[in-house]
Amino acid sequence: MPDTVNAYILIQTEVGKAASVAQEISELQGVTMAEDVTGPYDVIVRAEASSMDELGRMVVARVQGVAGITRTLTCPVVHI
């Protein structure tokens, strides 16, 4: 998709919820990858949207609505 905005979304979850959060998020439209990981974040998501506004709406309306998430950090991909 031309002019697509891509981003990584770093997610902290409630204890023991990483796998279920990753599974549920992986089914959302616009999500191209969702994996549970170790470290300061529990799940890392790769997402794409048609614009920064659409990306923001996806994170707020869909991703943050998944049960078990305590915090998200969205990192848009830039091409320097």
Quick recap:
The chain has 80 residues and is an alpha+beta fold. The protein has helices at residues 18-26, 52-63, and strands at 5-13, 31-36, 43-49, 69-76.
Care to describe what's here?
- The structure is a single chain.
- By secondary structure, the protein is α+β, with helices and mostly antiparallel strands.
- Helices cover 26% and strands 38% of the residues.
- The protein contains two helices and four strands.
- It has helices spanning 18-26, 52-63; strands at residues 5-13, 31-36, 43-49, 69-76.
- It has a four-stranded antiparallel sheet with strand order 2-3-1-4.
- A hairpin with a 6-residue loop joins strand 2 (31-36) and strand 3.
- The two termini are 19 Å apart.
- The relative contact order is 0.33.
- The model has no long low-confidence stretch (mean pLDDT 93).
